[in-house]
Design brief:
By secondary structure, this protein is mostly helical. It contains ten helices and two strands; from the N terminus they run H-H-H-H-H-E-E-H-H-H-H-H. A hairpin with a 2-residue loop joins strand 1 and strand 2.
């Protein structure tokens, strides 16, 4: 499950989506995520699924690789669905012992599944098609206006980029530690929850040690290269808008307007 985490990884290939400016992909991702919380009927979600499928197709990233990231949130998704399914008041549809499934609970569960799946997949598209350096530059450019009120924009963008980059690194580190512990007899698949929790302790301790060591190595490397923040720094490859970026902006705005309009129609409301 840990090796299936795709958030923060970059998939090297050539596509229209890869060649887009990082600011376009960041803005498009934000618009897409915002639209998911404005839908009031299934047609909005259907439109979002079709739009995301088209973007994935244009990105040339294998669909199996893109969806693989969903495996890492199955547990969170299951907990969320169960809470909504059995703890939402409404008209009872099915009664199992003391547990009752209501119509409102069923609707909320479906909405949560759709939202979380589209949230994770949509975010993965951005990180899989954008290098960490471009993400940092894009974030810094988009928040450039905040510099006037003394907000450390460069440092914030750098921290977010490093955090994204460390997700797959720490996931790989966790997988290595778990395999090493399993070779020493650790049982991570025990049916007893207490045993599984105890087995995780020998994993968490070396993982935290490794994370702090990597953070310290990164800080020392930045110091050795005379890194002193964003003031006065220039870019080796500055971000410049091309015609395709303006076309992409137009498509994104059109999608957002149409999806919100269609998603809020009072037809088969959730």
């Amino acid at each position: 499950m840990i090796k299936d985490i795709t958030l923060g990884q970059f998939y090297q290939t050539d596509s229209v989506i890869h060649r887009l400016d990082a600011r376009v992909k960041l803005g498009g991702t934000f618009l897409f995520l915002i639209s998911l919380f404005m839908f009031r009927n299934p047609f909005g979600y259907a439109l979002a699924i079709v739009f995301l499928a088209m973007v994935i197709r244009l990105s040339n990233v294998p669909f199996k690789y893109m969806v693989r990231g969903m495996k890492s949130i199955i547990f969170i998704l299951a907990i969320t669905v169960l809470f909504n399914l059995f703890m939402t008041p409404g008209n009872v549809i099915v009664s199992i012992w003391k547990l009752k499934i209501t119509d409102a609970g069923l609707k909320n569960s479906i909405i949560m599944i759709l939202r979380l799946s589209l949230l994770v997949t949509g975010s993965s598209v951005m990180t899989l098609t954008t290098t960490p350096n471009n993400l940092t530059d894009g974030l810094e450019k988009m928040m450039g206006g905040l510099k006037k009120i003394k907000v450390p924009v460069h440092e914030i963008a750098m921290m977010m980029s490093i955090a994204l980059r460390f997700i797959p690194i720490l996931a790989q580190e966790t997988d290595k530690i778990m395999k090493a512990q399993m070779a020493r007899g650790a049982d991570f698949e025990s049916k007893k929850l207490t045993k599984r929790i105890k087995a995780l302790i020998p994993v968490l301790v070396p993982l935290f040690v490794s994370a702090f060591r990597r953070a310290n190595d990164l800080a020392m490397a930045m110091e050795a290269r005379c890194y002193r923040g964003g003031e006065g720094r220039t870019k080796m490859k500055p971000l410049i808008y091309a015609d395709r970026d303006f076309i992409a902006y137009g498509v994104l705005i059109l999608y957002f307007v149409v999806s919100v309009f269609v998603g809020r129609l009072k037809i088969m409301n959730f």
